[in-house]
Amino acid sequence: MTDNSGRTLVCSVLFLDVVEYSKKSVSRQHKLKQTLNRVLAEALETIAPMDRIILDTGDGAAIAFTGDPEDALFAALKVRDTAGDIKVRMGINLGPVRLVRDLNGQINIIGDGINAAHRIMSFCEPGELLVSRAFYEVASCLSEDHVNLFTPMGSRTDKHSREHEIFSIGAELHAAGTGANLPLAGADAGAVADNVPTQGAQRGRDVPDQSAKVFDAGESLIISGTGKASVEAALEQLVAKGARLISPVTQVHNKWMATCGHPPPPANAVQVTELGLTRIVTGQTRDAVSKKVEELLSIGGVLVHDLECTNGVWTAVCETEQGRP
Q1: Which of the listed residues 25, 120, 160, 210 has the most CB atoms within 10 Å of its CB?
Q2: Interatomic CA distance for residues 231 and 248, integer angstroms
């Protein structure tokens, strides 16, 4: 296999674990692990080895799908259908990952793509399958039939105070071959029953170049669109504003995607954080923070901590009188 370590990819990541695995006896853990390995092997048998990277997490697994985005969804449904009495929870995210080599010389993945998938999974109840907003935005565009697969569940906040908008995949949905009612879009679509609609035939068809969309994936921005030109234009605008390129424009199924970091805030941008009567003013330049402090003082504020610079960020602290803005 070609040494791809060091590459950054945008891919779907499925993170799953066995509920209360650590509370089981060693013999029970061993049996659960054997069963889970068999279930995963069956769920991934139609995915080419070069299109997946599997990480053993002890009580579960993390799988990065570098081919069709929907591969993660189909695999998760197959796991849910065949897990039997094993209580599994699963989360899917679409985001950037970096390929690295672990201590054993095997390809591993790190990055926000897998981190967010783990946090999406942490919101699950036993037997539940949740996906992130980033995955939903791409998967729902691949087929009109896919839109109805997802139920919005609102936003959840993880332990790092990061918000995630999540969507649920209903328990009535099954993988192909197990009472399938889910339209397929992968290369293996032809292997299922003739009455199951497929999206694979749409590959190579001309798709109107619509405006690209930019999704905030926390540590990065994902640009997605049906046309290469619109994604390139959106990426160029972000890079011009100082955003760092993470993954260049590439085609994922019938979508074009790219990933970059967040552009730095404008030099004159100032943020005011309110904590009760206290206002913390931060900015990239002394002048910008000074002007905002003067504005607060002019309406009754009191400077309690003069300007100082830490790691390139200027900060000042003001307090307001009770009942004053």
Answers
A1: 120
A2: 10
Structure tokens, 37: 């390995």
d(Cα 238, Cα 244) in Å, to the nearest integer? 8
> SS3 of 29, please?
helix
Q: Which residues contact residue 54 at a Cβ distance below 8 angstroms, ignoring those fewer than 6 apart?
A: 40, 44, 61, 62, 63
Element (H, E) at 122: helix 112-122
Which residues are CB-contacts of 34 (< 8 A; sequence separation ≥ 6)? none
131: DSSP letter:
E
Query: How high is the pLDDT of residue 67?
Result: 83
Confidence check: pLDDT of 117 > 90: yes
Q: How far is CA 175 from the centre of its chain?
A: 22
pTM of the model: 0.61
Sheet holding 255-260: strands in order across?
213-216, 221-225, 255-260, 245-252
Which of 120, 79, 87 has the alpha carbon at shortest distance from 18? 87
